[in-house]
Amino acid sequence: MRHVFVWDIYVRVFHWGLVGAVIMAFYTMETSGAPFLFPIEVHAKAGYTVLGLLAFRWLWGLVGSHYARFHTFLAGPSGSLGYAKATIQRSATSYAGHNPLGGWMVVVMLLSLTFQAVSGLFLSDDIFFQGPLHGLFGGDVSKALFSWHRFNSNLLVVLIGLHLVAIVAHRLMGEKLVKGMVTGVKTLSHPPVDYPASGEVKIRWGWALVAIFVGIAVTLTFWLG
Asked: In what residue span(s) does the Cytochrome b561 bacterial/Ni-hydrogenase domain sit (predicted)?
C-alpha cells in the first residue's frame, strides 16, 4: 500500500464549495426556500458563486497541479473504451487521479454546471428576480434559455446521481474517494499509471493566485452588480 498526494488544497476547496453552492441552488428552487424571505435571490447568488468556482476550475485545469490538469486525465476514445473493457474484466490499471471514464464524467459535469450558471444570467421570473444579462439577446432567447435551464437542472440531477453511484462503487472496491477529496491523499494498492514523472505534485503558486483572483472577480461582479 502506498499513500499518494493527489488533490491540492485548491481542488478540494473548489469541490466542497461547489457541493455547498449547488445544494443551496437546488434547495431554493425545489422547496419553499425557508427560512429565506426571497429564495430566488439566494438561488441567484448561489449560481453566481458556482460561476466563480467554475471560472477558477476551468483555468486551474489548464495551469494547475498535475492531477488537476485536464490533459492528465482526459483520454482519447480508444483509451477510454480500453479502460471500460478492462474495468469489466476487472483488470483495469490503477489511477491516482481521475481514470479515463471518471475524467470525462468530470468534464461533462463541469460543462453542464457552466451552462446552468451562465444561462441563469439571462433569466427572469417577472416578479422578484431579473438576471444581470436578461434581455441582452431579446425575450425569445431568454424564454428558450429558461426551458433549457430547467431541462439541464434535471440532467444535473442524473449526473450527480451517477457520481454518487461511482463513489459507492469505488468504495466497495476499496478506494475511498471522499476521504481523498478531504485529505488530498489516496491510499493505493498498486503504483498509479498517472504518477508524475517528477515524483511529486507541484503547486504553481503564482498561477494559483491568478486562478483564485479570476474566480473571486467573477463571483463579486455578479454579486455586487
From this structure: 6-184
Residue ranges making up the domain that contains 17: 2-223
Whether residue 135 contacts residue 142, with contact meaning beta carbons closer than 8 Å, is answered with: yes
Question: Per the structure, how many domains does the chain have?
Answer: 1
CA distances from 7 to 54, 143, 165, 187, 200 (A): 17, 40, 21, 12, 12
Helical (H) or strand (E) element with 185: strand 185-188
Q: What is the identity of the amino acid at 41?
A: E
Q: How many residues are present in the chain?
A: 225
Q: pLDDT tens digits, residue range 38-72?
A: 899 999 999 999 999 999 999 999 999 999 999 99
Residue 124 sits in a domain of what CATH number? 1.20.950.20
pTM attached to this predicted model: 0.94
What is the sign of the dihedral through the CA atoms of 140, 142, 147 and 152? positive
The CA–CA distances, whole Å, from 61 to 58, 126, 158, 218 equal: 5, 37, 24, 17
